[in-house]
Write the structure tokens for this entry.
Amino acid sequence: MRAFQADPQNIKVVLLGQDPYPTPGDAIGLAFAVNAETKTPRSLKNIMTELASDGFRADSADLAQWSNKGVLLLNTALTTAPGKAGSHSKLGWNAFTLEALKVLALQQDYVLLAWGNHAKEVSKSLPSNIRVVDSAHPSPLSANRGFFGSKPFSRANQALISLGLEPIDWSL
């Protein structure tokens, strides 16, 4: 639930993940983010590679910094069983987080970073005022099939500008 500590009025971008990392101690309540002491998961390494390729500093893997810049790091499922990715995906979390995204859309425009088919599917249920920047998922299985080279961070900034919002310095 850490993602919901963000002030909704400050949210400009939602980075939508699927579910928390299943390794005990890795997940910190923010999609794709981990504690500094945690070994960097491969998906996060791929995000850092693309961040640098997209023209931003990638000196740290601490995605929690983005929360202070107007980025909501939200998973559609907020829990999972230890060692079992996706195990709580049918417990109703998807409906809960989709409703939260819709309520946010009633309050303000924002950009949705939809990485992978799961996030793209969720984006189809959002109101038309939400700008969607999609690409393949950053997982090792699909990063080479459309995540690398997709420039999601600069594309999100272009979408923010089109909404009349300030772009984000994605550098870490």
